[in-house]
Specification:
Number of domains: 2
Radius of gyration: 23 Å
Distance between the termini: 41 Å
CATH architecture of the largest domain: Orthogonal Bundle
Order of helices and strands: HEEEEEEHHHEEHEEE
CATH class of the largest domain: Mainly Alpha
CATH superfamily of the largest domain: Transferase(Phosphotransferase) domain 1
Shape: elongated
Helix content: 25-40%
Strand content: 15-25%
Length: about 250
C-alpha cells in the first residue's frame, strides 16, 4: 500500500502542470500516510529545474552506491533526470525495505522484477505504475493463486461463532502482534495457509477487510472457548482418521 501510493505520487510529480518535479530532500521522514495515501509533508526542497547539459557526459546521476548515465536532450536538458532521481530514491528508501517481505509467494517474483528494474533505472515512472497495478490486480482478484488440491473439505465450518481473542502463535506478516492474522482471498486459501502451519488447528474469517477489500483470517492453535458472533465463521480442522470425533 505504501509503495503503490508512493509511485502514484511520483507519477503525479513527473507529469505535474509545472513540469517534472524532483524532491531534493527525499527521506522517509518527509512523508506521512493520510487516509491510506502517502503525502509529502514538506515541499520547500522541491524543484522543477532540470540539469542543463551540452553532451551526454554532463548527465550523470550520482548516488552513494550507484551512478547512472542519462541522455542530453535536444533542448540542452538531462532527459528525465528529476523523474529518475525520485524513482531511485523511492527504490532505496522504500522498495528495498517493504517489497520483498509481505506478499504471497506467487507474487514475490513480480515484486522482485519491480525491485530490480527500479534499482537499475530500467523502468521509468510510467512502467513502474503499470507494474504495481498489475500486481495489485492479481492480488485483489486472486488470480495469483495456483491450482492446488481443495483443502477446505478437511475443515468443519461453524457459522455465527468465533473463538475468544487472546495471544496465540505468531506468523509473518501478521496484522496483529498477538497472533497470526493474515489477509486472504477466500476460505480455501486460508485452509491452505492453515495446512502449511504446524501449529494451526482452526481459523476464523470475519467481515474485517484490508485496504484492498480482502478479508482477514485469524489462525489459531486451538478451537476451544467458542462465543457467538453473527459476522464470523470458524473453520476447525477435521481430526485425522484415527477414530477421534469432535
Amino acid at each position: 500500500q505504501i509503495c503503490l501510493s508512493l509511485v502514484k505520487l511520483l507519477f503525479y510529480l513527473a507529469h505535474s502542470p509545472l513540469g517534472s518535479i524532483v524532491l531534493l530532500d527525499f527521506q522517509p521522514r518527509q512523508f506521512v500516510m493520510v487516509d491510506g495515501n502517502l503525502k509529502v509533508t514538506d515541499m520547500d526542497d522541491a524543484s522543477t529545474e532540470e540539469l542543463s547539459c551540452k553532451e551526454d557526459n554532463d548527465c550523470t546521476l550520482d548516488f552513494p552506491t550507484k551512478s547512472f548515465s542519462l541522455k542530453c536532450s535536444a533542448v540542452g536538458k538531462c532527459e528525465g533526470i528529476n523523474e529518475k532521481k525520485n524513482l531511485f530514491n523511492a527504490y532505496r528508501y522504500f522498495f528495498t525495505y517493504l517489497l520483498p517481505h509481505s506478499a504471497p509467494p506467487a507474487l514475490r517474483p513480480l515484486l522482485s522484477d519491480i525491485l530490480n528494474a527500479t534499482g537499475d533505472l530500467q523502468y521509468g515512472i510510467n512502467e513502474t505504475v503499470k507494474a504495481f497495478e498489475k500486481v495489485l490486480h492479481l492480488y485483489k482478484s486472486g488470480l495469483y493463486l495456483q491450482k492446488r488440491p481443495l483443502l477446505l473439505k478437511d475443515y468443519i465450518s461453524l457459522k455465527g461463532f468465533r473463538t475468544v481473542e487472546g495471544e496465540d502463535y505468531k506468523c509473518w506478516p501478521s496484522y496483529s502482534h498477538l497472533g497470526c492474522l493474515l489477509s486472504i482471498h477466500s476460505a480455501e486459501e486460508a485452509a491452505a495457509i492453515c495446512n502449511s502451519q504446524s501449529q494451526c488447528q482452526s481459523f476464523i474469517v470475519t467481515e474485517q477487510r484490508t485496504w484492498t477489500g480482502r478479508p482477514l483470517a485469524s489462525f489459531q492453535s486451538s478451537w476451544t472457548d467458542l462465543i457467538p458472533d453473527t459476522n464470523a465463521v470458524v473453520y476447525i480442522k477435521r481430526p485425522a482418521s484415527s477414530g477421534k470425533r469432535l
